[in-house]
Amino acid sequence: MINKDDLIKTNLHKVDKLEKEIIFPFFLSEFGELTSAYFIYQNFDQYAEIFTYLVNGKYVIEFDVSTIDYSIIINSIITVDEYKKSLQGKGRANKENREYLDKIMKEINAN
Predict the structure, then answer these.
(1) E strands along the chain, which residues?
(2) Does residue 86 fall inside a structural domain?
(3) d(CA 1, CA 42)
(4) 60: which of 37, 55, 70, 83 fits an S-S bond (Cβ 3.0–4.6 Å)?
(5) Does residue 97 lie in a domain region?
(6) Could you tell me if residue 55 is inside a domain?
(7) Superkingdom of the source (predicted)?
(8) What is the pLDDT of residues 35-65, one digit of tens each?
């Protein structure tokens, strides 16, 4: 039987390794510098993982990482304000996403 805690640890280790070896170097090449990167969202599609990050406190980037060769395809890069506008409307998910983004922005602005 699979231990739930072991499965979580394994998945966290995989994401951490993916960030260090693939995602963060990609951000550095895409934006020229990497001062901060905050994970916002992850979803799974056939042969790809879809990620959304807040980068350098300015940009929200959504991209796919191939589960076959770890290549990255950019879906969109938008400003924080544009991302906030996309979260307008009713619904618990949008409200939670707005609150999470506000929390991240407060942390960035405090530093």
Answers:
(1) 37-45, 48-55, 59-66, 72-79
(2) no
(3) 26
(4) 83
(5) no
(6) yes
(7) Bacteria
(8) 999 999 999 999 999 999 999 999 999 999 9
